[in-house]
Specification:
The protein has one domain. It has two helices and five strands. The chain has helices at residues 2-6, 56-59, and strands at residues 11-16, 21-28, 31-38, 44-46, 52-54. It has a three-stranded antiparallel sheet with strand order 1-2-3, with no helix packed on it.
């Protein structure tokens, strides 16, 4: 995450295939803060840097 923050990457998404779980982080100042997360059966909706809606369960198929 440190290198992403140095490069000023505004958002990043972690996909944990073990869950599967999605975790979305956004850059606030010089640190990342958790913006949203979703477990199987839930939907993660984000609008920046593009619009998408994901259900982690769909990634395990």
């Amino acid at each position: 995450m440190h290198y992403y923050a140095e490069a000023r990457v505004p958002h990043y998404l972690i996909v944990d295939p073990q869950g599967p779980v999605l975790e979305l982080y956004r850059l606030e100042g010089d640190k990342y803060v958790a913006e949203a997360s979703a477990a199987p059966g839930e939907r993660l909706l984000f609008t920046t840097p593009f619009v998408a809606e994901l259900d982690p369960a769909s990634l395990a198929q």
